[in-house]
């Protein structure tokens, strides 16, 4: 299959055409359009379990899966980023024991297979490219190679944009389709209020989100608006 649209979308540096916020979206859409076994794609920046931003999601379903994984704190993308190696899951019903918190809700939303590739350059890890399917089945060997190359090219494009921003004296802050900035603020606010560590505050937010079956971002907004306090450690 001709992959030129995919390579063209990835090679275009973020902001090169004046539509910086659409670059990651174009990459995700190109993955779906050119890889036969892929129904949706997600491109995320990651730094640690608390720090993540979704740069691109090919459709609302993909965005929902990204939120489910962030709320659960586990899943193919989280594992690929942590290990620095691809995570290939052709049938989530078989591998759901690896991520029990994520798999149950993901399966309920229609996810059947997922393939996550780290965005990495040497020891530097920037995030992940996740390709997902609504039906079980693996990628072909050619598609696996193409997906890995797509992740490498996306990494190079992001590093190039970061260097250009640094040379210009600007902060590298790519546009996002899902920002978890409110989660970061709520974590700090909760830590200060309860006099606990940031990790403990974040764990409390995540536990409440999971127990109430709500996105972590929504719980964080409730904390910021003082609709909930999470003062009880059992929450």
Task: List key phrases describing it.
6 strands; alpha+beta; 235 residues; 10 helices; 6-stranded antiparallel beta sheet
Mean pLDDT: 87
Largest sheet: 6 strands, antiparallel
Residue windows where pLDDT falls under 50 for at least 5 positions? 15-21
Task: Kindly estimate the percentage of residues that lie in beta strands according to DSSP.
Answer: 15-25%
Alpha-carbon Rg, integer = 18 Å
Record the strand order, biggest sheet.
3-4-5-1-2-6
Report on the architecture of this protein.
This protein is an alpha+beta fold. Helix content is 50%, strand content 17%. The chain is built from 10 helices and 6 strands; from the N terminus they run H-H-E-E-H-H-E-H-H-E-E-H-E-H-H-H. It has helices spanning 4-11, 23-34, 60-72, 76-83, 92-95, 100-108, 141-167, 181-194, 198-211, 216-224; strands spanning 40-48, 51-57, 87-89, 113-121, 124-133, 178-179. It has a 6-stranded antiparallel beta sheet with strand order 3-4-5-1-2-6, with helices on both faces. Helix 1 runs antiparallel to helix 2, helix 3 (60-72) runs antiparallel to helix 6 (100-108) and helix 9 crosses helix 10 (216-224).
